[in-house]
Design a protein that fits this description.
The complex is a heterodimer of chains A (358) and B (339).
Chain A: H1 31-36, H2 39-57, H3 64-89, H4 97-114, H5 119-144, H6 148-171, H7 185-193, E1 195-198, E2 201-204, H8 205-223, H9 225-235, H10 237-242, H11 247-273, H12 284-294, H13 306-326, H14 333-356
Antiparallel strand pairs in A: 1-2
Helix pairs in contact in A: 2-13, 2-14, 3-8, 3-9, 3-11, 3-12, 3-13, 4-5, 4-6, 4-11, 5-6, 5-11, 7-11, 8-9, 9-11, 12-13, 13-14
Chain B: H1 6-28, H2 35-38, E1 55-61, H3 68-83, E2 86-92, H4 96-108, E3 113-117, H5 121-133, E4 138-142, E5 156-158, H6 161-175, E6 179-184, H7 190-202, E7 206-211, H8 217-230, E8 236-239, H9 242-255, E9 260-264, H10 268-275, E10 281-284, H11 287-304, E11 315-316, E12 320-323, H12 327-335
Parallel strand pairs in B: 1-2, 1-3, 3-4, 4-5, 5-11, 6-7, 6-8, 8-9, 9-10
Antiparallel strand pairs in B: 10-12
Helix pairs in contact in B: 3-11, 4-5, 6-7, 8-9, 10-12
Classes of the chains: A mainly alpha (358), B alpha/beta (339).
Region (Disordered) (chain A): 1-25
Keywords (chain A): Cell inner membrane, Cell membrane, Membrane, Sugar transport, Transmembrane, Transmembrane helix, Transport
Transmembrane segments (chain A): 35-58, 70-88, 119-142, 149-166, 201-222, 243-266, 286-302, 309-326, 332-351
């Protein structure tokens, strides 16, 4: 577990070198180009383009409160997109993350309600369950060596079925009971689902958590040993192992981080809407992955950034809400969404190509 | 699965410890409010049971997993099955091709009757014909009002979505609404589109449509908020399912709008919302009744040759309006999840 892999040339793009460092290899290239070569810069420009576009096309977006709504939608995607991005940099991905959010919310809600406990008990048990799901995914991926696509597709289906069956078994319905009048609810709601006033605009607390988590993830990724491990296992597992990176620990912990994110968003869903429908969450995993990929994460692992996923999630939220603010014909909604996202990704890719071309 | 490795038990130790700690805190953390204890045991209406020989009925719907509406349909069907000494085989798939396979499966099992929804009638044509050739009576429920007769089905129980939408529009006219937004939680669903079209037909003001992602509540919430901000003249939000109505109430708050919320379909939380006035009214197609009648009808047909509507007219289960004036009557049934 030494720090020897810090400057590991075999692992592709050295992640720890921030834009300010110059180590001879990049010295000949102008600063602007070096900046543009960062994986998140393309998506930043893409997101900025989308924002400017909608500021012009949809007057309603110019209000502060509209931006709060857009940021809220982005944050619930973005909080999950962060660990999903880290996992992708680590060379794996997780199809079960969408339904895992609902599994966590269902656990907390049903446990508290059925046993008539303080909701905090449910919240804590849900955390344990979420981490266990992540551990299970990671452990199985590492032990079997099978692609995480297969393993997490299995978990996705298991969770989808379990969510429905257990909820039905326990509550007799397919949705959980309302827990909003129970002890601890108001307190938990403050943490997971409250909002606060900024200059007359109601901002949801998830936006703050999202930015805090993004800062934390960026710091971990770029400034810690663990961050280097993530790039190393994603770039080349075998050479990472050869230089002493604990591959098993890194991969399993990354899956557990996704579990942590699922727990957090699950708690937001629960305390924001009081009840949870067991069929929700399906297909959200693709949105999280999309946000990470738009944000510059390679599908093959080893490259990407946490902050990129922030812009990716923002872009998704912006396009999603912008279409509504613009009042376009809603029949075309999905098509608009797809075109805008593709367009933004193409800008992203073009910037990257231009910047890295010699 | 594998207990051979000692290192694993060491790794599991913290997890066990956390679980144990959680279990210990359970005792001291009981909630004084709400929860299961507050929910009085629902008194089960125990009707008499038929003494006819046991028969098997298949109920095949296009339910998406985890939808509260279909759960109520199924509960109605189960109640009828229990009363009529019927073995109920329930299966569902939102994909039309898969649903057709499930009907084929029921035919292969040689069940005594099939109840089926016709969300995509063309896809079901072939298998329903096969069932009829094998002498299995088929009844329709919920969707397919305009197609059940063409497919030679025995009878039909449901609500005409267009008629329900039209009744909804009429009701809106009496509330003084001028501009509404009709929120569709599943793009491309025929029944949902018919509801909004029906509303538009009779509603005298302006109707707009909005699509939301029904599997992601935070997204539903922010999209409705966005719409209300984009068009501040909207005075009523119309949703097509109970959970979306409850979310729409939050969106109205977020947007600082004065819009009212009205909806299709019920559940127990929605009933509370009607009682406390946060939702104006709900139109109820009585899904429990649809499931119950469809199964019961197959029993009646087998043992007494009856068929409702004489095979010509559908049996309408809705639209029934639930608002402040009659909500208390519905509330006790909704609490059990059967209304």
């Amino acid at each position: 577990m030494s720090m020897a892999q810090q400057a590991e040339p075999a692992l592709g793009r050295p992640p720890a070198s921030g834009p300010k460092e110059s180590d001879g290899r990049t010295a000949r290239r102008p600063l602007a180009l070096r900046l543009l070569a960062r994986p998140e810069v393309g998506v930043f420009l893409g997101a900025a383009a989308v924002l400017v576009f909608f500021l012009i096309a949809a007057p309603a977006v110019r209000q502060g409160s509209s931006m709060a709504t857009i940021l809220y939608q982005s944050s619930t995607i973005g909080i999950m997109a962060l660990p999903v991005a880290l996992l992708m940099i680590g060379g794996e991905f997780d199809l079960s993350s969408g339904v895992a959010v609902i599994s966590s919310a269902l656990t907390a809600s049903m446990l508290s309600y059925q046993l008539t406990l303080n909701v905090w008990t449910g919240v804590i048990v849900a955390l344990v369950v979420s981490l266990a799901i992540g551990f299970f995914n990671g452990w199985l991926v590492v032990k079997t060596g099978l692609p995480s696509f297969l393993i997490t597709l299995g978990t996705f289906l298991i969770l989808q079925g379990v969510n429905l069956a257990v909820t039905k078994l326990v509550t007799g319905n397919v949705a959980t009971d309302d827990i909003s009048d129970m002890d601890g609810f108001a307190q938990a709601k403050k943490i997971f689902a409250s909002s606060f006033d900024v200059g007359g605009v109601q901002v949801k607390i998830t936006v703050v958590w999202w930015l805090v988590f993004a800062a934390l993830a960026t710091w971990v990724l770029l400034r810690t040993k663990y961050g280097n491990w993530i790039f190393a296992v994603g770039g080349n597992k075998e050479s990472a192992r050869a230089v002493g990176v604990p591959v098993t620990f890194t991969k399993i912990s990354l899956f557990m981080l996704v579990g942590l994110g699922a727990w957090f968003v699950g708690m937001h869903n629960l305390f924001s809407f009081n009840t949870v429908q067991s069929g929700e969450g399906v297909s959200n995993e693709l949105i999280y992955i999309a946000a990470a990929v738009i944000g510059g994460c390679l599908l093959t692992g080893g490259s990407g950034s946490a902050i990129g996923s922030v812009f990716g999630a923002f872009m998704f939220g912006m396009v999603n809400q912008g279409i509504v603010y613009a009042g376009w014909n809603p029949d075309w909604f999905k098509a608009f969404l797809g075109v805008m996202l593709l367009g933004a990704v193409l800008i992203n890719q073009w910037v990257q190509r231009t910047a890295t071309r010699r | 699965m594998d207990r051979s490795s000692p290192s694993r038990s060491r790794r599991l130790a913290p997890i066990v410890a956390v679980a144990a700690a959680a279990a210990l805190t359970l005792a001291g953390c009981a909630s004084a409010h709400g929860g299961k204890k507050a929910e009085e045991a629902a008194q089960n209406a125990s009707a008499g049971k038929a003494n006819t020989p046991r028969m098997t009925v298949a109920l095949v719907t296009h339910q998406a997993p985890g939808d509260t509406f279909w759960d109520t349909v199924r509960k109605g069907a189960e109640a009828a099955a229990a009363k009529d000494n019927i073995k109920l085989v329930y299966s569902a798939d939102p994909n039309a091709g898969n649903q057709a396979n499930l009907v084929q499966n029921a035919v292969d099992q040689k069940v005594d009757g099939i109840a089926v929804t016709l969300a995509k009638p063309d896809a079901m044509k072939g298998v329903i014909g096969k069932a009829e050739q094998s002498g299995i009576p088929v009844v329709g429920l919920n969707s397919g009002l305009s197609d059940w007769k063409k497919l030679g089905m025995l009878e039909f129980f449901g609500q005409d979505e267009s008629v329900a939408g039209e009744a909804f529009g009429d009701k809106l006219n009496t509330t003084g609404a001028k501009k509404i937004v009709c929120v569709i939680q599943e793009q491309g669903n025929v029944g949902l589109t018919q509801r909004c079209d029906g509303v538009q037909k009779t509603f005298k003001g302006t109707t707009e449509t909005l699509y939301v992602n029904g599997t992601d509540m935070p997204s539903v919430r922010s999209t409705i908020t966005a719409k209300l901000k984009q068009d501040s003249s909207i005075d009523t939000v119309v949703t097509l399912g109970a959970p979306f109505a409850l979310t729409a109430v939050q969106s109205v708050g977020d947007a600082g709008s004065k819009a009212k919320v009205a909806t299709f379909d019920l559940n127990k939380d929605l009933v509370k919302a009607v009682q406390n006035g946060s939702i104006e009214f709900a139109v109820d197609q009585q899904p429990y009744l649809q499931g119950y009648l469809a199964v019961d009808a197959l029993w009646l047909y087998k043992y007494n040759g009856n068929y409702s509507g004489g095979g010509v007219q559908p049996v309408l289960t809705g639209p029934a309006f639930v608002d402040k004036s009659n909500v208390d009557k519905v509330a006790e049934f909704a609490a059990k999840g059967t209304r």
